[in-house]
């Protein structure tokens, strides 16, 4: 048990009550204050728990709202990235088509030169053979 709150009572009250009465009165007061202290601690504890619960609920709702905002921002960023990626891919496709067209032109020109060289060499070879 906790230390008694009151150890002594005023002398005049002790004289009126006597030693036995003074001790019983001290015990009564200490028991009353101890019971009251327990009630107060319980009440304060209950209030604290209730307040803590309220604050936790407020905190949770704020966190949920912030998470929803963050989720919306992330979705928006992802949508923007997808749009940018589509644009970049479209640009790359256009560049690739342009490059392929240039390569096709170069291959066609090279093929013409090769055919021209083969025709010319065939003509030159037939002239050399006839000589």
From TrEMBL:
<feature type="coiled-coil region">
    <location>
        <begin position="60"/>
        <end position="102"/>
    </location>
</feature>
<keyword id="KW-1133">Transmembrane helix</keyword>
<keyword id="KW-0812">Transmembrane</keyword>
<protein>
    <submittedName>
        <fullName>DUF1640 domain-containing protein</fullName>
    </submittedName>
</protein>
<feature type="transmembrane region" description="Helical">
    <location>
        <begin position="113"/>
        <end position="129"/>
    </location>
</feature>
<keyword id="KW-0175">Coiled coil</keyword>
<keyword id="KW-0472">Membrane</keyword>
């Amino acid at each position: 048990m906790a230390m008694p709150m009151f150890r002594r009572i005023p002398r005049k009250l002790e004289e009126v009550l006597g030693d036995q009465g003074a001790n019983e009165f001290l015990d009564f007061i200490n028991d009353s204050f101890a019971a009251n202290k327990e009630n107060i601690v319980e009440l304060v504890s209950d209030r604290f728990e209730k307040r803590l619960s309220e604050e936790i609920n407020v905190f949770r709702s704020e966190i949920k709202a912030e998470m929803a905002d963050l989720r919306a921002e992330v979705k928006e960023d992802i949508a923007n990235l997808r749009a940018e990626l589509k644009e970049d891919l479209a640009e790359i496709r256009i560049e690739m088509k342009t490059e392929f067209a240039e390569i096709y032109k170069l291959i066609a020109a090279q093929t013409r030169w090769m055919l021209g060289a083969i025709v010319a060499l065939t003509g030159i070879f037939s002239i050399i053979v006839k000589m």
